[in-house]
Design brief:
Number of strands: 6
Order of helices and strands: EHHHHHHEHEEEHE
Distance between the termini: 5 Å
Mean pLDDT: 77
Strand content: 5-15%
Radius of gyration: 16 Å
Number of helices: 8
CATH class: Alpha Beta
Largest sheet: 6 strands, mixed
Helix content: 25-40%
Structural class: alpha/beta
Low-confidence stretches: 1-5, 149-157, 167-171, 179-198
CATH architecture: 3-Layer(aba) Sandwich
Length: 198
Amino acid sequence: MTTLVANHTEPLPLVLDWDGTVTERDTLHMAIERFGDLEVFHGLEDELGRALTLDEVIAAEMATIRAPREDVVGFLLEHVRVRPGFRELVAEHDPLIVSAGFHELIDPVLRREGIEVRLVANHVHAAPEGWRATFPEGPICPVCSERCCGASGISACRCARLPAGGPALRGTSRGSTCASAVPATSFRQRPCRTARWR
């Protein structure tokens, strides 16, 4: 991968989105397609950024899943594909993964791949009456409607959890939009099955 530099004498810290960037497909969408309610999903996506925040949309979508956690994780382990070259990218650049998804669904995929990487994500509790998502406490960001984690220095949504020093961000999700205002360099791409890191 080409070193990311923009008016810097040192390489920029690299921050990556998980769904559709590290993975070939959005894993939350995959879980909802298989175990949740697609009608609710499509209805909520239309309200994203208008009547509902990203946290509210994700929480409502996950609440339509009632399957046991092991069933959902097993399905994702069977079907989720990590983009070729990710292991080498982690070894060379030590990226930070910042995701609106959940440790409970991301961590098993990383273990399957045998990859240890820094990860900032939310949490979800599997319950038979509907999965319950939990998010960091903090005010709503006026830029992207995500919730601030309350960290010092930067006060907008997941930007607050980005490393200091003007990181380079690569992502595909709506959650990458606000964070893209913080790094000196940002890369947003359409999800693409044929994308490669190099």
